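Re: [ENG-882] Designed sequences occasionally contain unexpected residues at chain ends

Forwarding the minimal case from QA. Structure tokens:
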């Protein structure tokens, strides 16, 4: 029990390696402690319990922002948010548990084998966590290294591979207290991948067309109050500024416009047209507006059969010239699984409305006249490594409109950190616009060029950074971290047959 509590505490402390504290060294130190605990486990079930406790501590602390989202709805008690964090963490901790179980099984007789097996298992389990039951990829441990040179390695081995390097760093710290040669061996893959990443081209310094990123600071607590639509519209238009002679791409957040921008119900066309005309007043003759909004689908022409969370691309006349529909929806946020059963016991989804959102077809590249090719990932979609671009039609940049107003103080900077890893993985700049922050411009190396503080209105006038050549990860996706995990596993099996170093 004492070792379990130590693992739980180590996991909880490791969460402070993530934003907003960003105490990166805590993550390898936590893994050094975890490796030592697993090595001392007398049996498999003890090793599994240690991994589960570590994960439980990390997720309960790191995901506390989920509880904040429950305070912005009236259908369920706010305290249910903390229960949701705990229950979700109970499930998510299964994946670290599987990784420590694998490490103990292979490396219980050899510490070096244990470290390599733990790194391999962590990569595989983070990949599985991102896909099973619709997936929840938030806060892979590698994101703790987003401000280090190892960020570039994601172009070779992806974010899950970076998590494997994080585990190896922690394992090397533990091994250094036992045998320096083993510690050096554990650091060898980190050094090799780090050196290889230096061969990747750096982001070009040239820049492209002008963009204005708008952050209106419209909080979720006021978004649906009477009169809020008019206030929000006025602030968005004011921050968009007066048009200039140079074409601009105006970028507004997810759900910036609450009235439908597309609706096939009878009699809705004039209302949609009026709404579009109202929001394009800031556009010059050569400008474009990309804004989050809603599209309503009706089968009978009377009632809404479905709603889509979409990005609409409008020209200065209000004509729709492009659209992206969010594909990776948030369970309990945008749709209620098993709705008949859960509704009967009083549960609801967090976003207002009784009609669930429809999922779009997936990544799509929009061709913008004068601005290049734009990929779109709405909000939470950006966290899924390897799933953010249409590889057959590689975009020049990626736009991530988001509504981080749900996520309290911890969620927005964590979201931004993960978006930076997508930029480094794909070699594509990422632009984020959110209602309350953190809106930002990230270059193709994952460097933060501009940002607006949380809970402050403002705008960013900048030029779209250039993309770099497609990285190996951009071409092969998550096959690369999985192959890296397999290589680490083979080393673990090889070393696991040798006696413990004295």
């Amino acid at each position: 029990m004492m070792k379990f509590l130590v693992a739980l505490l180590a996991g909880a402390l490791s969460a402070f390696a993530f934003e907003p504290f960003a105490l990166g060294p805590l993550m390898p130190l936590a893994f050094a402690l975890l490796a030592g605990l697993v090595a001392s486990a007398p049996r498999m079930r003890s090793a599994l319990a240690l991994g589960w406790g570590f994960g439980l501590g990390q997720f309960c602390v790191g995901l506390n922002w989920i509880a904040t989202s429950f305070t912005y709805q009236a259908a369920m008690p706010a305290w249910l948010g903390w229960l949701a964090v705990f229950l979700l963490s109970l499930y998510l901790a299964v994946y670290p548990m599987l990784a420590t179980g694998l490490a103990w099984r292979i490396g219980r007789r050899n510490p070096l084998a244990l470290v390599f097996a733990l790194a391999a298992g962590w990569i595989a389990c983070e990949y599985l966590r991102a896909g099973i039951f619709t997936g929840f990829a938030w806060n892979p441990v590698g994101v703790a290294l987003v401000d280090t040179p190892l960020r570039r390695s994601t172009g070779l081995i992806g974010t899950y591979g970076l998590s494997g390097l994080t585990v190896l760093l922690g394992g090397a710290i533990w091994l250094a207290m036992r045998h320096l040669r083993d510690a050096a061996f554990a650091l060898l893959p980190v050094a090799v991948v780090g050196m290889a990443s230096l061969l990747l081209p750096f982001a070009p310094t040239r820049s492209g067309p002008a963009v204005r990123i708008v952050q209106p600071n419209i909080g979720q607590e006021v978004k649906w109050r009477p009169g809020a639509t008019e206030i929000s519209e006025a602030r968005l238009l004011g921050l968009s500024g007066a048009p200039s002679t140079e074409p601009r791409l105006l970028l507004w957040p997810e759900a910036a416009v609450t009235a439908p921008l597309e609706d096939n119900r009878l009699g809705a066309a004039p209302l949609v047209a009026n709404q579009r005309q109202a929001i394009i007043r800031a556009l010059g003759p050569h400008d474009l507006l990309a804004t989050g909004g809603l599209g309503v689908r009706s089968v009978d022409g009377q009632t809404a059969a479905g709603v889509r969370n979409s990005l609409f691309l409008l020209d200065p006349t209000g004509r729709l010239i492009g659209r992206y529909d969010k594909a990776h929806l948030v369970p309990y946020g945008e749709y209620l699984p098993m709705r008949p059963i859960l509704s009967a016991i009083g549960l609801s989804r967090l976003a207002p409305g009784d009609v669930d959102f429809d999922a779009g077809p997936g990544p799509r590249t929009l061709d913008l006249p004068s601005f290049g090719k734009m990929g779109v990932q709405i909000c939470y979609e950006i966290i899924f490594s390897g799933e953010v671009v249409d590889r057959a039609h590689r975009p020049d940049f990626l736009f991530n409109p988001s509504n981080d107003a749900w996520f309290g103080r911890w969620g927005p900077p964590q979201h931004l950190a993960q978006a930076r890893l997508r930029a480094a993985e794909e070699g594509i700049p990422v632009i984020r616009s959110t209602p309350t922050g953190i809106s930002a411009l990230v270059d193709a190396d994952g460097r933060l060029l501009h940002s607006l503080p949380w809970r402050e209105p403002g705008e960013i006038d900048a030029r779209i950074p250039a993309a770099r050549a497609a990285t190996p990860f951009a071409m092969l996706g998550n096959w690369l971290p999985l192959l890296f995990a397999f290589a680490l596993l083979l080393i673990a099996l090889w070393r696991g047959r040798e006696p413990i170093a004295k």
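QA comment: On inspection the terminal residues look reasonable. The mean pLDDT is 91. Proposing we downgrade this to a documentation issue.
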